[in-house]
Design brief:
The structure is a single chain. Helix content is 82%, strand content 0%. The longest helix has 41 residues, at 23-63. It has five helices and no strands. With 146 residues, it is mainly alpha-helical.
C-alpha cells in the first residue's frame, strides 16, 4: 500500500511539473542561467560606464562654460571663505590698531566702530568641506582614477 501511495505521488508530481530531468539537462539549464547572469552583469556594467561617461562629459561642458553660475560656484565659495578668513584674522584685529596709530600720528582721537562678527563655525565647516573635496580629487588624479 505504501509503495502504491509513493508511486501515485510521483505520478502526480510528474503530471504537474513534467518528467524528471537528467543530470545533463540540469547542467545545460545551469549553464544557460550562468550565461544569462553574465550578460545581465555586463549590461549593467556597460550602463554604469555610459552613465559615468555622460556625467564626465557634462562636467566638462559646465566647467568650460562662461556662465558664472555653472563654472564659478566652487571658486566663488572659495573666495567667500578667503574673504571671511581675511576679515576675521587680519582686518578685524589690525584695522582698529592702524586707525588709532594713524590718529595719534596726526594728533586726533579716533573712534573705530566695531567690525561685524562673521560666523566662523559655519565658515570653517564650509572651508573644511571644500578642502576635503579638493584633497579627495587630488588623490583620485594621482591614482589615475576618474
Amino acid at each position: 500500500m505504501a509503495e502504491g501511495v509513493g508511486s501515485l505521488a510521483k505520478d502526480i508530481r510528474a503530471a504537474i511539473t513534467g518528467p524528471e530531468m537528467t543530470a545533463e539537462q540540469k547542467a545545460q539549464i545551469e549553464m544557460q542561467l550562468l550565461v544569462m547572469e553574465s550578460a545581465a552583469a555586463k549590461a549593467a556594467a556597460d550602463f554604469d560606464a555610459a552613465q559615468m561617461q555622460g556625467q564626465v562629459d557634462l562636467n566638462k561642458i559646465e566647467a568650460g562654460s562662461d556662465s558664472i553660475f555653472k563654472s564659478g560656484w566652487r571658486p566663488a565659495v572659495g573666495w567667500i571663505c578667503v574673504a571671511g578668513l581675511t576679515l576675521t584674522f587680519l582686518v578685524k584685529p589690525l584695522l582698529p590698531w592702524i586707525c588709532q596709530v594713524g590718529a595719534l600720528m596726526v594728533g586726533r582721537e579716533s573712534i573705530v566702530p566695531p567690525i561685524p562678527e562673521i560666523p566662523m563655525n559655519d565658515l570653517l565647516i564650509l572651508l573644511s568641506g571644500l578642502l576635503g573635496l579638493g584633497t579627495m580629487r587630488s588623490v583620485e588624479k594621482i591614482k589615475g582614477t576618474r
